[in-house]
Amino acid sequence: MNVDDLYWQAKHYGGISPRLVNVLLEDGQLELLIQAAAERGEWFCAETSARELCKAGDFQRALAVMEPFVAIGWSPARWATADIMLQAGRTEQALELVRPDETGRESEHACRRFAELLVKAGRVDEAIALLTPHIDGWLLPVLVELTEGQDRDERVLELIAPLAQRVRNARAEGRWRDDAWDAQEREAQVLERAGRVEQAIRTLGADIAAGRFLTQNTLTAYAELLVRHGRIEALRELGTGKHSGVALPHYAQALENDRRVEEAEAILRQFIGSAEYPDRFRWALIELLARQGRLSEAVEVGRPTFDYHDAWLLEGVIHLLYGAGRLDDALAILDERSAEFVEEHPSWFTSNRLWLLGEAGRYEEALAYAATRPADQYGLTETVARLLEKSGRLEEAISLLRASGSERPSELAELLIRQGRAADAIAGMPSLSALHEAARRREAATEATRSPDEPPFQGLSGGSCDRVTCRHGTFT
What integer pLDDT is reported at residue 400 of this predicted model? Predict the structure, then answer.
């Protein structure tokens, strides 16, 4: 076990990945996770097993799991240990273990983590004081989140107010960015949770009307606020005016919530038919029709976009059809795509088609199709192994993964776990140091062949990137 390997594992999900850890946990293999943490130095196993031990009230054993990681200077283990101590009632010891010094208080990340512990310990005012010097940026939403339900809304509003005002003034001062760009929506969020809904709507609405905001997120936050409180007339003005691209779907949602489905459908169809960029409204109508049980009509709304480069509406429709059990219809839509589309999206098309065929139980057809694809297509070997497993050809699946020289050994391990062979699965995993070294060699080889004009390699370094090609999970 060494810190360098642990950094690599945490960055690339190498070794026994969080996904594989969850599979083991679901299989009831907590003791195997504890063993892997101790004997193999697997951080994700240690982190999860300690959490599970705390749930069972076994704090001493959880601390023992963390001890060797703390001993080598692995910072996440020190923070995890403090959290365990806090749960065990050892509050002062927990806080002293990770309390940042003056230099540490300059670190936003350290302040965030310590503030989280302080809130858990009931020391909310100390947490607010710690975060206050850093809220002019990404820690502002952290402050809002940590103080929810802590009876500190007025204090938080006092801190946000000058930041929100500065953002309001930005455009008039010729500025188009501000580190506290989300201060207005955070102010409205705290006002809303404090029960001051009218003030939240009035304040944020005035900023939107006057154009005193910097990002689309603020506009979206205002529309969502209106939806939550059923302000349909305000949404109509917002959604059918100059901000329709963002707010119209929210107006339609509010109409639907008010059981005015026909009006919601009509306004969406109107904009799809007349707007300069109609596709931004199609998904809202597709979802509306799907919720009304009119999935075939929803498909037709998306159909004009199915050959677009980004394929995002196509994928969304496929998932809706899958959720409705209409696998043949989803496959038919895929198979309608042109040869040019398939050539442009080879991995996406293949993984989706194999996923749907597998879900439909058409394993032999899926395997025959897989045999027509390039053997080196990313993720194909693992997908074929899963199809073999599901079709009852387990030994073929295992042999395929073992012979492939797969850079993702967690695929084989997961298959073995599903077959009740968890101990064999972990025993067969390469060590963390071996995986890290193999990743270094691959990166060096890639860098050696890189053109001087190409950017440096920023890939996943052979980590356990579980089923990246097939975004749909496993076959059921």
Answer: 92
